Request: fold
Amino acid sequence: MDFNLCNLSQIQDLMRIFKLSFRKEFGQNFLTDEDVVRTIAQVCAEKDQDTILEIGPGIGTLTRFLCERYPEVVAVEIDKSLIPVLRYTLNDFRNVTIVEGDILKLNLEELLASSFQRGPVSVCANLPYYITTPILMELLESRIPFSKITVMVQKEVAQRICAPVGGKDCGAITAVVHYFGKAELLFDVPADRFVPAPKVDSSVMQITLHKEKPVQPRDEAFFFEVIKGAFGQRRKTLPNALSLHFPSFDKDRIPGILASMGLDERIRGERLTLEQFCTLSDLLLEHFGNGKQA
Ligand code: SAM
Reply:
């Protein structure tokens, strides 16, 4: 069938026929700009090679473009009332699997096992704003060897994630994402390209996962905790922020540890590079343990 799912009146017809309304609690803002949809589908992976995991297909707008370009698409949608719509709008494709479920609760390894046997798998999504960070963290920390993760998120979130580590805009999420991959901001998408229009603009960003991590902390979970602690209190110096996050650490010994790395005790967490976070977490581990057993 000839669908144009970016067309407002087609979207409204579908919503009426299937008796649907846009569900704010699921972050439903559907894309209406065909150029944007086509471009996301083009840049998200290697044509004719990758399987695509799409998170939140909505009514299938981006999914149709993905199905045309890639050998296999697995589309996970939480809103069960959208499943019949997806079966209808994707009816002419044999290379799509529609899965009803919450991306944060599914066993992705199991879901994608046969896809990985066939070749590379990449992720593509216009993410619901309300759970951008948990979804990204889940994908990265799952250790599933995705090739690329291409997502549309709130513009400010994309800017923060793609900022350089050690620069003034760096946050905990910046450092953690850069540990897993190279993060790039691709392009901005104004709010009026969605229905309903969100209150904020969006950006498409892409994470290309490292085959080998840039640093090898002795204890990865503790390394993430140190990053979290360093950014927990942005206006505080690093020794203050760390001792608040790890109450069992002897605060007076932290400046000495920083000095051994050539760092001033008044430094703030956002100035550290990934290498410095790694050295710091190894040294803190050596001096104090992981802060849990005290
Ligand atoms: N891909 C469509 C588009 O670009 O027009 C819809 C994008 S809309 C911003 C987000 C979609 O994610 C909605 O369809 C929503 O129901 C779905 N969603 C929200 N939370 C989800 C979750 N935890 N797991 C899977 N899908 C989710």
Remarks:
- The radius of gyration is 22 Å.
